[in-house]
Amino acid sequence: SRVQKYLRLDKGWAHQPIRHGPVNLVIVSIYIMVAILNLRRNRRGHNYRSRNSPLWMTYLPQLLVLFLVSSVVSFYGGVLLGIQMNSSTKSAAIETNTKSLRAESKDDAEEDFNARVQAEVELRLGELSKNENNKQKMDEFVKSRGNNSVRASNVSPRVKDDAKQLKTNVANNGTSAMKQIGDTAKVAISDLGITSLEQNMINSMGYLPSEDKDLEVDKDGITFYTVFSTDCGTFQHWQSYLLFFAAMRIKQTGYITRIASGCTEKEKLDAKEWHQEHIAPMSSRFSILFTPKFSDIKDEEGKRTGEYKYFNKPFGVKYYLENSSDFGWDEQTGEMTTVKDKAVVIIIDPDMILLRPLTTDFSDSSVQFWSPAWHKKIERKKKLELGTPFGQTYGLSHGWMKFVDLAGPDSQALKVDERIADLHYQVGPPYIAYVKDMYSIVRRWAELVPKVHKAEPDLYSEMYAYILAAADQDLPHEVVNSMMISLPDAYGESWDMIDAIPDNDICKSGIAPNQSQYPLPTVLHYCQTYGVGDILFSKYFMDSDIFTCSKPLLVEPGEDVMSHMNAHKPERGGKGKEELKPELHKRHAFVTCAMTSAINEASLFYKLHHCNGGSNKDRKLNLALI
Q1: Rounded distance, CA 223 to CA 452, Å?
Q2: 15 within 8 A of 502, measured Cβ to Cβ
Q3: What is the DSSP secondary structure assignment for residue 148, as one 8-state letter?
Q4: Residues 158-194: tens digit of each pLDDT
Q5: Helices in 403-460 by DSSP H: which ranges?
Q6: What is the pTM of this model?
Q7: DSSP 8-class letter at 268
């Protein structure tokens, strides 16, 4: 069992590092030598060898030990040699492959794209010559592309001209018009050099109004209100654009609102214009809400003594719930008067992108819940219910319990022990709850967060305060591992989903997620620094003007992303590199591929709609060299 444990024979030893091998060899040898020395003396302390025994018998134990040690060393060396040869063979196979990932994707994409365009056009337009309904669809399509609407004012002149020509063609020949739409889309895609499989007509041109409306409510009749909190600085400005784009790309249902806190009047005007010009063309369901500044730290006399920017999240969400017309909050009764029963609020962070839609149904077999080591089969609820919110596992354990007295002597939080705290309260965003439950938590969250921060000023003060508020309101969460990945070796995240993807598909899965082939977590929280080979990604190194006409695209990893030659993360400025173990190598590769591709797709969307054909589409921006 020790050989199996340390050589990882149960986990596929040819793909795993041999752990502690030399150490074990030395320890085993010492154990055997000590045993031999003990055997050389009997209980009375005399030599066990008879004076008449031959000399060779005296050294028989030493000879046996030498044979055993040499055998183990030979076996260990052979295993290492086999792994090295296996790795070299794999690397050679990768390096001799003449087609790059992008080249393979391009061939597949061209065939796949043609089929998708045809299906998309047929779905949108139908057989135009048959009835008035199909003509109305065509008019809607042309109007959304060519009239003086907000969306149309932001598309390139070429698209406008094509739309006008299409309108003329419809009257003459619907089939010809339908074909021209497909040709126009293919030309637009090829001109921009888009090679990712996910870049289809939705990505390049946005939604039709009817498609947008269909996504207001999900298939179960639930309306999602997804919110994220930002300030008005440029750092979270580009993150907001990327989040909206990622939500559009995976067709997230419901409404998504950016809560911007503490803006000056000029910043508010600029942000409002930017949203109207650049976010509104993506979806009419995307909005921005401005709130007062909540980040000031004040003393008992109300004087400002510092700043904690994360105050904006609880106070901003509370402001949103109480002031949005979607909910109709009544200050007298504390009730939401206009909201429907099936209204769900989801809180995420601005530095997240969606890999698949947020949901309230966790019954899929790929969903992973947190379970303690002492009990692997905890019974969990699989669907959101009133009184049972959901959250992503965070490695906070029961650390929040040191603040429990701040909730007051009658708080329900005092009844929570460490076992229940781990089972139901070690959560972070995404937070998911019905609006009534979420408002109960958020209202208490805003009351408790200043107290928690005062008691222990910390980055995680607002997260501890959220958990304390949930426990105070007696709203235990179902704790889900598989909603998020962030830090490549983090506890409680669904990195095993990434580990299960074959090396050859790891980058493709990041570029174009395919849930039916390889299940993925819901969100990628890009709060760390990632890199593979010569490519580096970090939100902290990203220029705030990434989504402009003049900015080049990011360099993306190539086809040899999983080659052993790329098993390292570069340091910024080319100053060195950090070697990556095989497991971390794959995880960094996935995130680096996913993030550079997502930003490039969002940038191309921006350039297609706003740059009138004159934009920088060179893939040459490498954050490792900045």
Answers
A1: 33
A2: no
A3: S
A4: 333 444 444 444 444 444 444 444 444 444 434 433 3
A5: 418-424, 435-455
A6: 0.71
A7: H
